[in-house]
Amino acid sequence: MSAKLVAVIGATGTQGGSVVGALLAHGGYSVRAITRDTNSAKAQALKSKGVQVVFGSLTDEASVVKAFEGVYAVFGITVPFTNDSEELQGRNIVDAAKEAKVPLLVCLFDQKSEVDKYARSSGQPTVIIHTGVFMENLIKGHLQRDASDPNRWNLAYPVLRPDVPLPLLCVGGDLGRIVVSIIDHWEDDTWKAKLTKDVLVAAPHLASVNDMISTLKKPVYGLVNDGYLQYPQQTILEELGIKTTSFETYAQEKVLPYLQSNQ
Ligand SMILES: NC(=O)c1ccc[n+]([C@@H]2O[C@H](COP(=O)([O-])OP(=O)(O)OC[C@H]3O[C@@H](n4cnc5c(N)ncnc54)[C@H](OP(=O)(O)O)[C@@H]3O)[C@@H](O)[C@H]2O)c1
């Protein structure tokens, strides 16, 4: 029997890339990457690893239906800050999965609650993951070199008090394994019921800006502001047998080397 095919939206990006990496490491699935540019360097790199690379754009539903043909499971994301609403992108993913009769859609709409509701009411079998805050955000923007003192870094989370605990996930290291584990468990009815009942919260590590600063042991400061973020703690990862990266480990392996190499 041939391996089940898993299609990944955003395969050339952070989250989809993590899922593709975990699928390849698992070895039991065929992988199809969906991209708007099948000739890009990242698309070519995926091809060289044995990944099928096909065209698909979230604003063109017909292209997504075609990209989902023959697929067992889809990992989907929507993309913010473009001219095309995330709600439209999300609805296109759900509608295309339904039309292509995809047995499992695993989605990370990331608090885009209208799409969550749409997926829930569509009849498309869907597992919705909420990741919390990506640890990668530190390197991608929250840590900034001080304008007047190059030896100093600022840690800025503008709408948060520095003592508010944030639910954190190392997306590059952990999201892919979480998604693959969900796909692996899908044909077990007990798991299916559990995974579809509630949003899967995959952000087990809580750390406030103050915690992050003391972990990094760097002369950084938090931008203080009024704000409050509530997030339920992880519910299911332990049961799936997934150990995720702690902030301390991420800080040692990624953030401190980043700060040192940029001194
Ligand atoms: N919770 C958090 O802390 C946090 C942090 C960052 C991001 N996010 C969420 O993560 C998502 C972004 O994921 P990411 O960080 O993996 O993004 P990313 O690294 O910027 O990559 C974006 C991916 O989306 C694909 N893409 C863009 N527009 C597309 C379209 N119209 N049709 C099909 N594919 C398209 C790109 O593929 P091609 O260019 O190859 O087509 C690329 O692979 C968003 O939902 C964002 O809100 C959350």
From TrEMBL:
The keyword Iron is annotated on this UniProt entry: no
Domain called NmrA-like: residue spans: 4-103, 107-195
Statement: the UniProt record of this protein carries the keyword ATP-binding: no
One Gene Ontology MF term: oxidoreductase activity
CC per GO annotation: nucleus
Keyword terms, alphabetized: NADP, Oxidoreductase
Pfam families: NmrA
InterPro entries assigned: NAD(P)-bd_dom_sf, NmrA-like, NmrA-like_oxidored
Domain of life: Eukaryota
Family: Belongs to the NmrA-type oxidoreductase family.
Xref: PANTHER family: NITROGEN METABOLITE REPRESSION PROTEIN NMRA FAMILY MEMBER (PTHR42748), NMRA-LIKE DOMAIN-CONTAINING PROTEIN (PTHR42748:SF30)
Protein name stated in the entry: NADP-binding protein
UniProt source species: Dacryopinax primogenitus (strain DJM 731) (Brown rot fungus)
